């Protein structure tokens, strides 16, 4: 469920790069992914959003949605596959050449091939970690020296970092390793008051989540916290909180957005509250 106060403009004057913020046209118009929801929420709160995605048209589709809710806003869509180090360098070179100085960075990009352990190959392993871990390292590495003091970075991780139930070891390992990377980035940024934190998503109803459920029937059909999956707006609200001044003394932390699922807090869909 989307909830938001239109009077809140605490990101006014700030520029935020959201990597993995694109969303292709088509599909269920009511269903948004985590990256797009984060972009929309940041823009609603006054931020200038730079939306980067490996699919430029998907990034442009998100920016069109941002501009539709606030005509005249100066948002930007860029193409970058962070699995390719050269494209990461090009992304940040483009920002520097355009005189764009970041106040915050959200790293939401992630891929999965859902290979069980027996089917993981060196090549498939490297492909997943190349985007989900190395790509995040390269983006944080490039952003830190160019970011304004007092900025913030948010990594979007997953409950899969803690639970092997999905039998998806490359993805699970990449998300688990983000915890160590986040701590390293937090330490590196500390001298300039730049914070780094993690949003750890549970079962969230997004296009990627529905694809995972299609591949693994029953993934989200059992008891769930509050009898439902979370939404991308739940992730967006958490990310915005960690980027905001309200979280100025929160650093190297992991904020679970799973409704308590990790602790077995759940009820059957339709059960009375």
What's the shape?
A: globular
Q: Helix proportion of residues, in percent?
A: 25-40%
Low-pLDDT regions: none
Which CATH class applies here? Alpha Beta
Largest sheet: 7 strands, parallel
Mean pLDDT, rounded to whole units? 92
What is the CATH architecture term?
3-Layer(aba) Sandwich
Rg over C-alpha atoms, rounded to the nearest angstrom: 18 Å
Q: Quick one: how many beta strands?
A: 9
- The overall number of domains is 1
Structure in words:
It is a single chain. The chain is of the alpha/beta class and 273 residues long. The protein has 7 helices and 9 strands; from the N terminus they run βαβαβαβαβαββαβαβ. The protein has a 7-stranded parallel β-sheet with strand order 3-2-1-4-5-6-9, sandwiched between helices. A two-stranded parallel sheet has the order 7-8. β4, α4 and β5 (152-158) form a beta-alpha-beta unit. α1 packs parallel to α2 and α4 runs parallel beside α5.
Name the descriptors:
single chain, 273 residues, alpha/beta, Rossmann fold, two-stranded parallel sheet
Briefly characterize the structure.
The protein is α/β, with parallel strands linked by helices and 273 residues long. It has helices at residues 34-44, 56-69, 85-97, 122-146, 169-189, 207-215, 232-243, and strands spanning 15-19, 48-53, 76-79, 104-107, 152-158, 195-201, 204-205, 230-231, 254-257.
